[in-house]
Design brief:
12 strands, Helix Hairpins, 9 helices, alpha+beta, five-stranded mixed β-sheet, 21% strand, Heat Shock Protein 90
Length: 378
């Protein structure tokens, strides 16, 4: 289709009758020419779409227009189909992503359900690490490790509670029995006095047991900064050796002290209790006519103090490792066992409260070696 107009007479338009008839009264070719000179453009005439161009010659302007309704309808339909396809693809991708997230978080849901089901009766349950995705296996392993620690601590707490009940029941039962016997009939003054001495001894044991348990509970919290003060390890050990020397001499046991002793960083009373327990145990379990060796190595950060005594009978390392358990006693065949079995447990708790460690090593089956490492100020 084409239309012509005289540039001098803008209202005069020639062209095919049909096309000219389609042009409305407000159609202005000169305006189109001014806006789209020598350029193709798309115009809309009477609900139809045309791709057109205005060509200028000396006397007239020519409008050449090609109807593109078919192409326009095709593009509209193509856009609709493309939009529908994109919508379906987007919906499919979102569904796949949602399923992937669901499947990916399914192992986490399993862990959450396991955590919700934790109780004292089910601490032995574990996650199957091999069933987890590679990314979640470290988490599953950490979870199993946490449960193992919880189970171990809970078992230790249960045994500790049972042992406390047993240790408290014995002196209380003794006091009850002694009191009932004394009240069963009138007694002489001497009998009352003797019985009161027995009860005093039983009460002293009970008080010592309670104090030891309170000390264990206290050391579990660690030390505050105000409790950490310089403590001269050589002065501390010298005083304790002087105190225990008379007891040791009864069995011909002597002390030998060697090495570099320095300043420890901690609570003086707790450190005194730690080394007093170690020296007391060393004397009690040492063979007669033997030497208890005390050696110290001090660096800028840690002090290592080792106490070694000779045993009258061989002792296996496996048996020695049990000595840190609360209320555990190593039975000696020829002597009555004293104490409640909390001595080394208290030593370990005090060392831990000072950010230190304590260990036991059996050398040649007959030498009992306890090594304590504590922060120093050398």
């Amino acid at each position: 289709m084409n239309a012509l107009t005289d540039k001098t007479k803008p209202s005069n338009i020639w062209g095919s009758v049909h096309f000219a008839h389609e042009l409305g009264d407000d159609f202005n070719l000169i305006t189109l020419w001014q806006n789209n000179a020598q350029q193709q453009f798309v115009t809309h005439i009477n609900d139809r779409h045309y791709r057109a161009i205005v060509i200028e010659n000396e006397q007239a302007l020519s409008l050449i227009a090609l109807p593109i309704d078919v192409h326009h309808q095709y593009l509209v339909q193509f856009n609709r189909q493309l939009s529908l396809i994109l919508f379906v693809i987007t919906l499919l991708l979102v569904s796949i992503a949602a399923l992937s997230v669901y499947w990916g978080f399914a192992p986490l849901a399993t862990i959450v359900q396991k955590m919700k089901g934790i109780n004292p009766e089910r601490l032995d349950e574990r996650l199957t690490v091999s069933d987890m995705p590679l990314e979640l296996r470290p988490l599953a392993q950490s979870y199993n490790l946490m449960l193992a620690k919880l189970e171990s601590n809970f078992d230790s707490l249960s045994r500790f509670s049972d042992n406390i009940a047993h240790e408290l029941r014995t002196p209380l039962a003794t006091l009850t029995t002694q009191t009932q016997v004394m009240l069963s009939k009138p007694r002489s003054l001497e009998e009352y006095t003797e019985q009161l001495h027995h009860q005093h001894h039983t009460l002293a044991q009970l008080s010592s047991l309670i104090n030891n348990m309170l000390l264990l509970a206290k050391t579990q919290k660690g030390l505050s900064d105000s409790q950490r003060q310089p403590v001269d390890s050589e002065v501390l050990l010298t005083k304790l050796i002087d105190y225990f020397e008379l007891i040791a001499e009864e069995r011909d046991i002597s002390f030998e002290k060697s090495g570099a002793f320095g300043l420890l960083l901690g609570d003086n009373s707790l450190l005194q209790r730690l080394f007093a327990n170690l020296l007391s145990n060393a004397i009690y379990y040492a063979a007669s006519n033997s030497v208890i060796e005390i050696q110290s190595v001090t660096t800028s950060k840690m002090a290592t103090i080792t106490i070694t005594n000779q045993l009258p009978e061989p002792l296996a390392q496996k048996e020695a490792d049990k000595l840190f358990e609360r209320f555990y006693r190593y039975d000696k065949a020829d002597q009555h066992q004293a104490g409640a079995g909390l001595g080394l447990s208290i030593v370990q708790a005090i060392a831990k409260a000072h950010s230190g460690t304590v260990s036991i090593r059996i050398k040649d089956e007959y030498y009992f070696e306890v090594t304590v490492e504590l922060p120093s100020l050398r």
